[in-house]
Amino acid sequence: MEKITEWKEWLERERARKDKSFTVHWQSPIPAGERAKFRGLEYYPPDADYRFELELHEHNDKKLLQIEDTGGNIRNFLRWGEFRFKVDDEECTLQAYKSDPREERLFIPFKDATSGKETYGAGRYIDLDYERDRTPEGKWILDFNKAYNPWCAYSKNYVCPFVPPENWLKVAIRAGEKKFKR
Fold first, then answer.
1. From CA 44, how far away is CA 25, in angstroms rounded?
2. Between the CA of residue 159 and those of 17, 69, 77, 79, what are the distances in Å?
3. Cβ distance 94 to 169 under 8 Å?
4. Whole-model pTM?
């Protein structure tokens, strides 16, 4: 129970830090003219049921996947591996990508049943860092409570990769960041 409380407190601090950064930082994706009225992002309450410790099933053949972004550009990603988990007794699989085989970060874009309703229509992202997001046993911590909107959700000045259809989940992921409301 103590670990859950610490995790929730950490998550709330990170969310508050992000809100402050979006309000005052010169690189905020919130357009400068909208920052004075910005009151923070909306999130689902922290829910430990959406935090998984999983093995990454690394692909032997890391195929190149070309993903279009909102600006019409093509970006190259390597299909590095996949995570398998259950939500509401539904088997789910998400592909994890890398832009470069040398980087230690995994990129997990996804859409779910809340996309376009409660959350950003084009999907949300999770970034996993090799050092930060692994257990001592070597499993990855896939925490949907850390799911965030791409910056193109806040401003047309940014372009973001679309979520490939292979990462469209049928289930609702009611965790992480909600749709940005102006």
1. 24
2. 24, 6, 16, 21
3. yes
4. 0.92
